[in-house]
Amino acid sequence: MTQILTSVFVGIFIGVGIYTFHYAEGLSYVSTEPQVCANCHIMRPQLDSWQKSSHHKAALCVDCHLPHDFIGKYIAKADNGRRHSTGFTFQNFHEPITITEKDSRILQKNCLRCHEPMVQDLVMIGQTDSNTTYCVRCHEGVGHGERVGLGRMDKNDK
Amino acid sequence: NIHEKKIEAINPYVRLVEVTEDDTDPEKWGINWPREYDSYKKTAIATKTRFGGHGGSEAMPAEKIERDPWLKRMFLGYAFSIDYRDRRGHAYMLEDQEKTLRQTKPQSGSCLHCHASIMPLYRKLGNGDATKGMEESYKYSYQDLSKMLHEMGKAFPVSCVDCHEHKTMQLRVTRPAFIAGIQRLADSSAPVPHLPSVDLWRQGDRKQKYHPNMDASRTEMRALVCAQCHVEYYCAGKQPLTFPWGDGLKVEDVERFWNNSTFPDGTHFYDFAHEESGAKVLKAQHPEFELWSQGIHARSGVACADCHMPYMRDGATKVSDHWVRSPLLNISRACQTCHKFSEQEIAARVDAIQERNYQLLQRTARALMDQLDAIEKAKKEGASDNQLEKARDFQRKAQWRLDFIAAENSMGFHAPQESARILGEAVDYARQGQVDAFNWRGVDN
Amino acid sequence: NIHEKKIEAINPYVRLVEVTEDDTDPEKWGINWPREYDSYKKTAIATKTRFGGHGGSEAMPAEKIERDPWLKRMFLGYAFSIDYRDRRGHAYMLEDQEKTLRQTKPQSGSCLHCHASIMPLYRKLGNGDATKGMEESYKYSYQDLSKMLHEMGKAFPVSCVDCHEHKTMQLRVTRPAFIAGIQRLADSSAPVPHLPSVDLWRQGDRKQKYHPNMDASRTEMRALVCAQCHVEYYCAGKQPLTFPWGDGLKVEDVERFWNNSTFPDGTHFYDFAHEESGAKVLKAQHPEFELWSQGIHARSGVACADCHMPYMRDGATKVSDHWVRSPLLNISRACQTCHKFSEQEIAARVDAIQERNYQLLQRTARALMDQLDAIEKAKKEGASDNQLEKARDFQRKAQWRLDFIAAENSMGFHAPQESARILGEAVDYARQGQVDAFNWRGVDN
Ligand SMILES: [Ca+2]
Ligand SMILES: [Ca+2]
């Protein structure tokens, strides 16, 4: 398994033409496996914190972070794949990693995908940009417990 | 079991009755939205926290000016020294206004702006134009306007139609004095990092005035609906109800606005002349919106409704708790979604903030009382108006700041550092006034 | 390159050399831990923020008492009125201490406690017992002890061994005066919600004294290592170096502790007699730990190291940035891990907090200067010591509070509301002192 993954990821770095494809392939191939994301050590803190979050039995990374319509999913994967892997290769991204606005909207849609019935009353008032009730404004911790960033040491471990 | 709940919840907005702009009776809206209405009605329940609400068994809330006699002395010469009580739930707003002994002095019809579901009456007064109606209202006595209100049908406290557009249920503001006030703010260049829509509007062509219902984001609206009433104002017989935000929202911005104001008759603005000292002073009223604006919550996009009307789960759906009240009665919903600390710890944090503020407030009050004593003494010793001018000016400044925090209802919580800063300035001015009063002989005018 | 980075992360602690309790030279430790050492060395770089650090091109940091002449006047009669400069990086601590013109007055050997890697010298002085050594050190002159330090080998500023146990690299505290101070705090009943291990210890059998190295959690240690030095103290020739926490950490707790202290010779505790007024006053030094303790960050388990030594990623490993400096130079790592706002917004928040504090500080300083003027005047008019007693007492109270915030190095950030409260009290006392000085004739003693 690790062998396969490693080669998939090594493939990613080969060239602009094909890495996007490989990255997308590789992810969809094992897309329900959060380890895949965390294989990239940069994602490690998010994996750790997800494991401690209220959703770790309810949702996987892709459930929240990727769109769920067929086409949108692939576009997002290609786009993110390019950004993440170039970021990783050149180590030139902003730290702590912060979610992009575009991905925030994907995330929001995914909250609704699962929870719409419960929040109908609030979302019916409008979900245009300025009218959105962004769930994360109050439920920031659902996916990752406490804020993670570079990964904070546990409060109480000695 | 998500699936089952989906079915149960599918259509929460079946309307059983139509509601219109003229429907001020919440009961009718309650037929469509029973969950919100049920919680709305609870604002009639008496509640009490250390500093919030009213929970006595008495019919009327406790008298603030008896609990803190310095308040009474500070207001001598003004109706607030007659009767000034703890606030309580929205259900009582009209009744408490009708009953207050401040009504033993003439009050203007504009008082109703924030204590009743008033828009139909404004439209009537203005022949369909509510703004015009509001601008007329100050000329009526409270009694006359109140009578008109009651004659138009049942008179209600703040109601659904005041905050909601009836077709979509979207939030909207209605109060003309607020709209004029927020436009004054937008037209100014005062920084408003907590109201991004104002900044956006300022960058535009400004052909149309800033209007919350068009421009503000939903998050902002969750504060602005409250800012229709929980604000500092002028409301008396000399000019229309005014929200003083033309220079900004900070205590000194508002002070500057009043200082630069003149009444229509050309005289310099003041609220009342202090009975003992003769100083022409200002009165601050519940500047919740203004103080919140200076705090870290506002800057972080946390609105009044987030804390005072948190979502609550009701069966399979989540609704906004329309039992508007102290968040301390509801910490788990009001705070814990954002702050992952125990209820006890959160309560302790608020208490630490409020206790610091309370102690500093009492200290400031003592300083102001000392200053009043000093002016009394100077007067007895024969000080002239000229010789007291500086001391009186200090009183105006000190009292304005002290009152700003005393009248604000969160005991410093909405902006802890800012409140303490304001009180720090107030102490300084009061004591300087005391020095000047002692030194009246040295003041050459 | 994933594979390489993974390997790189496996064993970050390969030791190339052994280090011991006596190795105060950081270069040696740097062979084992080059990443930490590399960043540690950067404390020699000059940096500057609006209120922090030192970034001038001059060899020495700017003179605080020239920038704010009221500081100089407040310290008249004490060495701080001769030379008192901006702080800078850890690399300079020993040099700056050696060079300060405060050394033109006799200073005690205990000064080295916080400016050098001093433990081997303490052990030598105490024949192996560092605590005993520390307790002796105040009897030496600075010059003598400094000479001994240099003779023992190269003298270093704070070094690895001061914060790390050399076998495990765990954090630990070493400074005897700190350990005595924190034990005094633990023995008291002052509330310490931000130090849960003290509460835990208090509930135990208390057979052994509280000791951070045994009892404190890792989060707490990330603050306590700094609290060895960034604290209020007494350090002069009358008694051993003392950290005044026996009544708690708040400004009035520390004041009470000093007020109830007597020197070994039985005289009442004070730091110096003010040259102009004759008041016997206190001097506050850098109470960062004390002020942080009152803030919301401390209560939330956010330690000094979180902001001043944030983790930085170096390949696949994470290391603590040992370039201890202003977090404002490093907002992304220092703040954004917890606060999801843009760097610009975070900087603006800090600036808003610091600006409020700065203005209030300057206002308070003016009040104190006015009080000093008033005492001068009273003295000229012939006021007796008795008649000035109350005014002087007010000066002591006011100056203590003003200095507490002026000497604290975060310009209010570590606990914004608390700082403003303290300044509010200071203004009040200074102005009351002014009133009393004006009224000296009325004071009957
Ligand atoms: Ca007013
Ligand atoms: Ca001291």
Automatic annotation (TrEMBL), chain A:
Binds 4 heme groups per subunit. One of its GO terms (molecular function) is electron transfer activity. It is found in: Cell membrane. Residues 3-144 form the NapC/NirT cytochrome c N-terminal domain. Its main location: membrane. It is a single-pass membrane protein. GO terms for cellular component: plasma membrane. Gene3D superfamilies: Di-heme elbow motif domain. Keywords: Cell membrane, Electron transport, Heme, Iron, Membrane, Metal-binding, Transmembrane, Transmembrane helix, Transport. The keyword Nucleotidyltransferase does not apply. GO terms for biological process: anaerobic respiration; electron transport chain. The keyword Transmembrane applies. NCBIfam families: cytochr_NrfH (TIGR03153). Belongs to the NapC/NirT/NrfH family. This is Cytochrome c-type protein. It comes from uncultured Desulfobacterium sp.
